[in-house]
Amino acid sequence: MNQTLNDLRGQLTSVHTVRPRREQTLRELTDQADTAREELRGVEGALNSLAELEARRNRFRAQAEEQAFLRGRIDAQLSQLPDTGDTYEGSLLQLRAAAAFAQAQVDDLEAELDTDAMQDRLDHALNYISTDMTAYAQALNLEHSKRSIRLDVRKLTVLADSDEGIVPLLRIGSGENWVGYHLVAHLALHRYFTLHQRPVPRMLLLDQVTQP
Predict the structure, then answer these.
(1) C-alpha span between 9 and 6 (Å, rounded)
(2) Which of 182, 180, 163, 160 is nearest to 171 (CA)?
(3) Could you say which DSSP state residue 169 is in?
(4) How far is CA 114 from CA 3, 45, 111, 138, 152, in A?
(5) Which residues pair with 149 in a beta bridge?
(6) Other C-beta atoms within 10 Å of 162: how many?
(7) More confident residue, 111 or 38
(8) Cα separation, 67 vs 74, whole angstroms
(9) In sequence order, what are the residues at sequence separation of 6 or more whose Cβ sits closer than 8 angstroms to the Cβ of residue 150?
(10) Cα–Cα dist 165/188, whole Å
(11) Which residues does residue 194 pair with via DSSP β-bridges, in sequence order?
């Protein structure tokens, strides 16, 4: 029994002796890991600095190339100007005149693209054409021609105003009326385009207009 107790005491002594060594080893490993982490952060910082420097250098290179391109364009424009003072002033006047002409063209295009102005011109043209269509329809004694006859540019058809309301071409009577209103629309459009110097033929040939 005494021997067994002595053996246990020896083992406990060994355990108490080994534990401080393990703790010291763990502390050393922890310190080494912390040192490695610090070194890694330093390397990452250096890499980030290098990347930022490379990005700046690329931006400077792009700016230098753009400046060189602009200088080349300016030199090319200046090389086309004459050397003498009088001719130089004349060239400036020509350039100013060309710039004014270009600005006038831009203004005209902007005016043409103005939706309100475009709608006003379209309404004016349709009213003008409607007046002729009504006169032609009455001359041919077509149905529903007592009131206004007009074009519907959205549906590409003829509309007639009546006491009951608006009557589209599909609801206007016989084939004679269909042919008549097609002829009326064609003549009114042709006359409008001719009066406003649009590129349409000045001769109109009709064949068998009585056939539906």
Answers:
(1) 5
(2) 160
(3) G
(4) 114, 58, 5, 36, 22
(5) 160
(6) 15
(7) 38
(8) 10
(9) 126, 129, 130, 133, 134, 158, 159, 161
(10) 23
(11) none
Tokens representing 203 are 């001769």
Q: Is the pLDDT reported for residue 150 higher than 60? A: yes
Mean pLDDT of the chain: 75
Name the DSSP class of 171: G
151: part of which helix (H) or strand (E)?
strand 149-152
| Intra-chain end-to-end CA distance of the chain, in Å | 134
Token pair for 58? 């690329």
- Identify the helix (H) or strand (E) that includes residue 152: strand 149-152
Of the chain, the percentage scoring pLDDT greater than 90 comes to: 2
- Beta bridge partners, 25, equal none
d(C-alpha 66, C-alpha 184), whole Å? 63
What is the bridge-based pairing of β-strands 157-162 and 165-168? antiparallel
Q: Which pLDDT does position 179 carry in this prediction?
A: 86
Task: Give the tens place of pLDDT for each residue, 159-184.
Answer: 888 888 888 888 887 878 888 888 88
CA 69 to chain centre: 27
pTM: 0.45
- Rounded CA separation 119/180 (Å): 29
Q: Using CB atoms within 10 A of its CB, is residue 191 exposed (0-12), middle (13-18) or buried (19+)?
A: middle
Give yes or no for a contact between 143 and 159, defined as CB atoms under 8 angstroms apart. Answer: no
